[in-house]
Design a protein that fits this description.
The structure is a single chain. This protein has helices spanning 2-18, 25-46. With 47 residues, the chain is mostly helical. It has a domain at 1-12 and 35-47.
Length: 47
Amino acid sequence: MLCFLYNTGISLYQQWVKDGRTLSLEEIIAQSESFLCHGIEGFIVSL
């Protein structure tokens, strides 16, 4: 479980950097938190 959380967090950060950081840091943190805590359903609702 810890590996999943670690790898997911790192992957989200890496993709944010590759995308040119088009979202603010606050937005990416909120979306990442929603995704990690609530899965895909929570992520879609936050959009």
